[in-house]
Write a structure and sequence with these properties.
72 residues; 2 strands
């Protein structure tokens, strides 16, 4: 039976004249439930998802275009 992981990240960035912009993301993935027996691997997977969420929000706030595919 798969295990569902949900990781979210949000951030607000101040703009000039007391304005602000915000971005948020929620990633939801299914992983092998066997990861519950290996807390280290589970934590690594969760950490990787948080890193992806954080970098995606930062890219959105900084208007960075992220390629959909990896370069050859």
């Amino acid at each position: 039976m798969p295990l569902k992981l949900a990781v979210g990240w949000c951030r607000k960035k101040g703009d000039s004249n007391f304005g602000s912009r915000g971005a948020s993301i929620l990633l939801e993935v299914e992983v092998d439930s066997g990861l519950m027996a290996d807390p280290v691997k589970l934590q690594e997977r969760i950490g990787a998802l948080y890193a992806l969420a954080r970098s995606s929000v930062e890219a959105e706030l900084n208007d960075v275009k992220v390629p959909l595919t990896e370069p050859s």
